[in-house]
Design goal:
Homodimer. One of its GO terms (molecular function) is ATP binding. Binds and transfers iron-sulfur (Fe-S) clusters to target apoproteins. Can hydrolyze ATP. The protein has 276 residues and is of the alpha/beta class. The protein has one domain: Rossmann fold (3-Layer(aba) Sandwich), CATH 3.40.50.300. 28% of the residues lie in helices and 19% in strands. The chain has an 8-stranded mixed beta sheet with strand order 5-6-2-7-1-8-9-12, with helices on both faces. A two-stranded antiparallel sheet has the order 3-4. A hairpin with a 5-residue loop joins β5 and β6. α3 packs parallel to α4. The protein is globular and about 55 Å long. It starts with 34 loop residues before the first strand and ends with a helix.
Length: 276
């Protein structure tokens, strides 16, 4: 077994094959023209639970409260952020880097769909290439001054979440789930991954929790009430919200007009998220 050391940093350690080697630093510098206060990752245990919709809604609400917001769409093989904001076309570059698109209320967005020739071209790239694109969206995009950069992650705990956690200065994550998931297990997987990377879990959102009867206003829990709230309490996750199925939001997303929706279900969640 190799000799151990008491150094606080690998750079000052001369012990060959040191067994107490500290974790390698994979961090990537931001673009020189980017000044970003907070980076928040939006994650889910599995696909289709509404992670991109929640990312977009959080961005819209933060922007409405006067914060400067950007969305880095790290869901490279299933990008849906540009569509819900009605963004189409190709981003251009300058000497400073790639200029992100801006939505009609001023949210900055970068997504693989905004660099492809044709947004219907599938992304059939291997993991390291995809991870490289995400890093480029961090260090080559001119984000400028931002209070919050929200990173829409692909579902699960694979290559891209790992790259984001290692390469970007992520302040915390928000986990999106749905009631019919095996919440306890899937949320805990995401929670445990964040713990392993020393990243706090800032919030949990249980999406598609219920529908509201259009005649009597009663909440109907089609998948059962779910365990989101008790899981948030059990894991000491500070912010929790339960979102219903909202038919008008689905229609606005399809029309690229998500910014026209005033989401009243996420107000106190945003309060907690932005608490100093
Ligand atoms: N609360 C909701 N009310 C109505 N429609 C919703 C709601 N949440 C999500 N949807 C719709 O469900 C679909 C899937 O949502 P979304 O793309 O956000 O999921 P996702 O978890 O990001 O999926 P993936 O992991 O595959 O990227 C979208 O059409 C979205 O508009």
């Amino acid at each position: 077994m190799s000799e151990s050391c008491n150094e606080s940093s690998c750079s000052s350690c001369n012990v060959e094959g040191c067994s107490s080697r500290k974790a390698e630093d994979f961090s990537v510098p931001a673009n020189a023209k980017s000044h970003i206060q907070h980076v928040i990752g939006i994650v889910s245990g599995k696909g289709g639970v509404g992670k991109s919709l929640v990312t977009s809604e959080l961005a819209v609400l933060l922007q409405k409260r006067g914060y400067k917001v950007g969305i880095l769409d790290a869901d490279v093989t299933g990008p849906s952020i540009p569509k819900v904001f009605g963004l189409h076309g190709q981003a251009f570059g300058t000497d400073d880097g790639i200029i992100p698109f801006e939505t009609k209320t001023g949210i900055k967005v970068m997504s693989v769909n905004l660099i492809l020739d044709d947004e219907e071209t599938p992304v059939v790239w291997r993991g390291p290439v995809i991870a490289g694109v995400v890093k480029q969206f961090w260090n080559e995009v001119v984000w400028g001054e931002l209070d919050y950069l929200l990173v829409d992650m692909p579902p699960g705990t694979g290559d891209v979440p790992l790259t984001v956690f290692q390469s970007l200065p992520v302040d915390g994550i928000v986990v999106v789930t749905s009631p019919q998931e095996l919440v306890g297990m899937i949320v805990k997987k995401a929670y445990n991954m964040a713990q392993m990377m020393n990243i706090p879990v800032l919030g949990l959102i249980q999406n598609m929790s219920y529908i509201i009867c259009p005649d009597c206003g009663k909440k109907i829990y089609i998948y059962g009430e779910g365990h989101g709230e008790e899981t948030a309490k059990e894991l000491n996750i500070p912010a929790y919200a339960s979102l219903p199925m909202i038919p008008e939001i689905a229609a606005l997303c399809d029309a690229g007009a998500i910014e026209d929706y005033d989401n009243m279900y996420l107000g106190s969640f945003i309060d907690k998220l932005t608490e100093k």
